[in-house]
Amino acid sequence: MGLNRICAAVLAAGVCLGGGVAGAETLNLKYSSWLPPTSWVNTDLLLPYFEDVKRVTDGRVVIEMLPKTVGAAAAQFDVVRDGLADVTLQIPGYTPGRFVTTELGELPFLETNSVEIIAPIFHRLFTEHLQPVGEYDEIKVLSMFLTSSGHAFNRQRPIEKMEDWAGLKLRSVGAGTTATLEAFGAVPVIKPSSEVFEMINTGALDGSLSGPENLVVSKLVDVMKYGTIIPGGLYHSPVSVIMNKGAWEKISAEDQAAIEAISGEVLAKVVGQGYDRADNAAMEEAKARGTIQIVDASPEFVAAMKERTAPLEAAWVERAKAAGLADPAGVLEQLRAEIAAAEAATN
């Protein structure tokens, strides 16, 4: 994945830019990665994107990965806001209650397992409705997207009916998934995906809500015994690529435009394609190993889960209104409508 792929996505709009301010000095920016340097999210997505940033600015903006992460995964927003690093991958759900508007993406049953479809839609709605609320005013959001649909993996027992959730200690990714697990009778524990393997090995967790790609990324394929795939997913994790505001303001207007042309929805779609590929590859590996018993949730089980989680949408609507979002129910309706339209267009 390089500049050519990203440019191809936007060439018709004429937004692949290569020019800039002649003679401008190079701005060297530092990327703090809480994921391992070898994670496919780094090697296949973010590092090529940073290379594209360098190319479209003719080398005037250079983003390099630091040898070690700065701060914990949950602290990355503050790390970038305070200038301890310039760029990072931020997961709002790791700080429950702080970024209420983007909890929209954590709601269950958004009716698609295609990240390529949902990721750019979420960035568009974020820009149109969520960002103006102001929760992200302290930094520059380069792209806000959703990742893989979340399913249930554990090492204790199959999850095929509501009673099977009871008492399972499962990793949660944020406030939305915590509420979902509590509604099911499970015990949610909010932790970064990078800590799940160790916690399962020590017995601190029984399993995790997770996108399929994380089976490989976090080595969960080595410790999980059971998986339940849920149509539409129990959640999607909102994730953003963010930059220090002061660093962004040092970039010329022309180079800012060049960077934005390969960011936003464009980057979100490329990210979505990457997650879809990684999800498919992970499921193939899990099935090939034969160590995880994977089942699809039955229609009756899905209906029971939807009934149990129905109040969560109303609860998010109220929290989002209190946070300053004028019409949360309308935004959720728009999200589902755009997903449905995109799904229909692919069939």
UniProtKB/TrEMBL annotation:
<dbReference type="Pfam" id="PF03480">
    <property type="entry name" value="DctP"/>
</dbReference>
<dbReference type="InterPro" id="IPR018389">
    <property type="entry name" value="DctP_fam"/>
</dbReference>
<protein>
    <submittedName>
        <fullName>TRAP transporter substrate-binding protein</fullName>
    </submittedName>
</protein>
<dbReference type="InterPro" id="IPR038404">
    <property type="entry name" value="TRAP_DctP_sf"/>
</dbReference>
<keyword id="KW-0574">Periplasm</keyword>
<keyword id="KW-0732">Signal</keyword>
